[in-house]
Fold this sequence. Notes:
alpha+beta, 10 strands
Amino acid sequence: MPNWCQNELSVYGPKDQVREIYDLIVNELEDDKIAVTFDRVIPMPKILQKVTTGGTKIDGEYVTTWVNEGEWPDVKARKLNEGEQLLIDAIGYPSWYEWAIDNWGTKWDACESRLITPFEVWEDEAEFAVAFDTAWSPPEPFFNALQERFENVRVGGFYREDGLQFAGYF
């Protein structure tokens, strides 16, 4: 169970670019709920999404890396085939976990997302703000990638983690 880090992201700028960011990172769900995702800004390689590391036995053999297939509660572990192992070696990360820490700054995608300021337009400008939680730390690589990709848009943010008592701004 992680310490949860609360994050707020505010976006302001040219309406077309702000709309592009909104459509990129916000999934609108039923009942006015949303889900923020990092995966469309910094996509996790598909192969890593099901690869786990640690230690387990499969067919009587101890393995340290394996593939999880199926949906909970019917998840089955299987050994990596040679092609999958070569692909993982080329990517440079043994599993989703290490990749997510390095590329998103946190082990999971955003959780408990909520809309703070709905998408609003004023002539040629627009803004929106969202809040979401992350495990242990803020998603600094995600914020940085948004700022680099959309140079004409003001992307700002605040984070705080109450368990270890740290906070800051992006």
